[in-house]
Amino acid sequence: MIGDFQSRLLELRFVDGIEKVEHVPYPSDDQLWIRFNRPLDMKKLEEIIKKHGATLVKFGGLASKLPRPLAEMLWDGVSYVITKNISDWGKLTASLGFEPDGIAKIATDAHGPYQIFIATQEEGVQILYEYIGLKYLPPATPPKPTAPTKPPVAAVAKQVSPAPTPTAPTTAPVAKPSVPAPATPPNPPEQKPTTQPIAQS
Hints:
7 helices, 201 residues, alpha+beta
């Protein structure tokens, strides 16, 4: 990530050999593009890159040899990638057209014969400053504010505490105990009226 784009643009705008400086925003990361008005001294640049523990990897060799209309559709013009910790397999895949992650790139300008240095990380800016002979100062802009985070203790306690057991909501109406209806005694068997014999006088 590159910091303090405004001061970089002001510092580089009027340096001899630089034609244009741009801050190019991307969804993933913003980039600093420097278009030179003369060919880069690749030998000098490679020495500086090695001092920083990085490697200059050739990229886009096959695509650049295609006819221009086809090359422009398949290739974004990047001819070198400055990267760290790349394996031999990474170099092979880069030669086949898989661009490795890097701190900077060098692209061929589609509208002219010169090159564009594209810094994607602050260390790429440092290499650029050393190449053009400017004193490099770390960015003065503070990092972008981030959303406040919860204290780490609360997070640990939250992870350790057992999951709460579900309880009945307190606002639910309390169920009244059901009172059984009084049992009605079974009907007694009907008694037939008894007739008493009438006494004869």
